[in-house]
Amino acid sequence: MDPLVVATFAVVALLEIIVPLALGYWLVKRFDLSWRVFALGALFFIVVQVVHAPLVIVTQTPLYLAVLPFGATTALAVLAVYLGLMAGLFEEVGRYLVYRYIFRRQDIPLTRENGLLFGTGWGGVESMIVALLVLTSMLSYIALTGDGGLVPLPDDPAVQAQVDALLALTPLDLLPGLAERMMTITLHIAWSLMVLAAVVYDKKGLLLLAILWHAAVDAAAVYLAETRGILVTEAVVFVFAVIGLAYILWEWRRMGVRAAS
Fold this sequence. Notes:
Blueprint: H1 3-31, H2 35-67, H3 72-105, H4 112-145, H5 157-167, H6 171-200, H7 204-227, H8 230-260
Helix pairs in contact: 1-4, 1-6, 2-3, 2-4, 3-6, 3-7, 4-6, 6-7, 6-8, 7-8
């Protein structure tokens, strides 16, 4: 067991929890907002996943097997597009419905500031859930690679191969996951602003664009992770995140001009 790997697990999990909370705190204090908006983003991410996740679990394997006769690469591509579209549809339509009905029912202004905070809550709770998974992985790492033999292992080559893979982990292997969370939060904020703009400007095309953008990111991540590896995948997600940041800045100025007029 490498203590540096354990420390990196802990730091990564801690940052995945602290960063969205810190960003939410800054937005609340800077623009005099309510934590209720952050909480709505977090709550409805979970609500959407309660429906989205089981549906994907039930349907993805039959879909993959149905197209597998056309080749493994084609099947993976179809599955990636399907998973991307499902994520885009559920999450962006979910955001749209919250803006249209929940915000208005609770008299929450449809402002760019609230859009940022809502997106931070939406992406932030996902980051926190991932942090819990990271902590679980850390405990597994300690249990399976510790010198004390905390978990008795069967004399199985497959199990030993898994332990060897854990022993080969370095701190650098864990950092791409942290970077991905930060990039994903940026994208969730961008999509939240785009869907907010769809409501504010009454332009359904922006909702469709958010769905397709979200689908493209998720589909690319699924396909590339299996075919090109983690570094290429994260590089592509980084490009999407830079585009997302540029959109946030552009939409922030556009909504500011609208609010001032």
